UniProtKB/TrEMBL annotation:
Ranges of residues in domain Pirin C-terminal: 210-314
Protein's UniProt name: Pirin family protein
Residues covered by region (Disordered): 318-349
Organism (species): Polaromonas jejuensis
Taxonomy of the source species: Bacteria, Pseudomonadati, Pseudomonadota, Betaproteobacteria, Burkholderiales
UniProt-listed Gene3D superfamilies: Jelly Rolls
Length: 349
């Protein structure tokens, strides 16, 4: 008889607790109101700790923004950010000179490597209706050999992300979006290529980042991972109640699973249920973190601080300290070499 595939179940906190090779995951779900003319919320900001507003007052926060919500320029070294935007838009700018506007299911994968400064602002464009924003930002560690790699950013436009829709015996569906990794024993589309210096680019790292959406009453079996030492965590973050390997989960939770076991999931409620899956083989190296810097030793952190004071990781070439990219909603990415890309037009129905 196989062991219980559930290692433990814990309530979701903030940020979400992760396992090596991941550092942490944050989930933002903000019910922003109508926009004002400056692409901020058309609402009073009284009572908020401006510059440090994580209050969720009225269902939303300004974070470190003062006019437009979001995160003005801040540095990173030694890891990667994977930003999955499910609703709304993010305006990106960085010290390499790159800019982007992405959202509506798009993903940005940024290798900070030896150092980058970037801003992530949340422009509100609709002056007549609410501007909901929903996103995950996942920090994925880099191994020591790649911590000083050149910075690099990759865009995965929504329509290019492989998606699998499985239907159970009762015709109820589960949709899986495969942002990293590949689902075993399926004919799903070819996997997306992670950045070249990412741990996820290692053939045996077994990194997977998936989102799952289950219809009311749906059942689906999460396939076993292939890696021998892979670790896996499943985050139940939306919906009323589910069962995981036959165990009832009646509140949102982080569920560590034995990665080598297939696990049956069931949405036991009358509303949609959603999960995020993070898995990978541990890097297994020391982690020393100082705010936005993640290295292997205290000496490397000291060197990082000295490097940042000296170089500002390339400095900030934008006139605005919280750049947003205008009122035109079109998504785009402009790379440091000037190359531009945009998502392909959706096929006509």
């Amino acid at each position: 008889m196989s062991a219980n595939p559930i290692v433990h179940i814990k309530p979701l906190g903030f940020p979400w607790e992760t396992l090596d090779p991941f550092l942490f995951c944050v989930y933002h779900d903000d019910a922003y109101p109508q926009a004002n003319a400056q692409m901020g919320p058309a609402a009073s900001l009284a009572g908020r700790d401006m510059g440090q507003d994580f209050s969720r007052k009225d269902g939303w926060s300004m974070y470190h923004g003062s006019t437009v919500p979001g995160f003005p320029p801040h540095p990173h070294r030694g890891f990667e950010t994977v930003t999955i935007v499910r609703k709304g838009l993010i305006d990106h700018a960085d010290s390499l000179g790159a800019t982007a506007r992405f959202g509506q299911g798009d993903v940005q994968w940024l290798t900070a490597g030896k150092g980058v400064v970037h801003s992530e602002m949340f422009p509100l464009l609709d002056q007549q209706n609410p501007n909901p924003l929903e996103l995950f930002q996942i920090w994925l560690n880099l191994p020591a050999a790649n911590k000083m790699a050149d910075p690099h950013f990759t865009m995965f436009w929504s329509q290019d992300i492989p998606r699998l829709t499985a239907t159970d015996a009762h015709g109820r569906s589960t949709e899986v979006a495969v942002i990293a990794g590949r689902m075993q024993n399926t004919d799903s589309a070819a996997p997306l290529a992670p950045p070249p210096d990412s741990w996820a680019a290692q053939a045996d790292a077994d990194v997977a980042i998936w989102t799952l959406r289950m219809a009311p009453g749906a059942t689906w079996t999460l396939p076993a991972a292939t890696g021998k030492d892979t670790r896996r965590k499943l985050y139940f973050f939306k919906g009323a109640s589910v069962t995981v390997a036959g165990e009832a989960v009646a509140s949102h939770a982080a569920i560590e699973l034995r990665a080598g076991e297939a696990v049956e999931l069931a949405n036991s409620s009358s509303e949609q249920a959603e999960f995020l899956l993070l898995q990978g083989r541990p890097i297994g190296e020391p982690v020393v973190q100082y705010g936005p810097f993640v290295m292997n030793t205290q000496a490397e952190i000291a060197q990082t601080l000295a490097d940042y004071r000296r170089t500002q990781f390339g400095g900030w070439s934008f006139t605005d300290d919280a750049p947003v990219h205008g009122r035109e909603p079109a998504r785009f990415a402009r790379h440091p070499d000037g190359r531009e890309e945009r998502p392909a037009a959706a096929p006509a129905k």
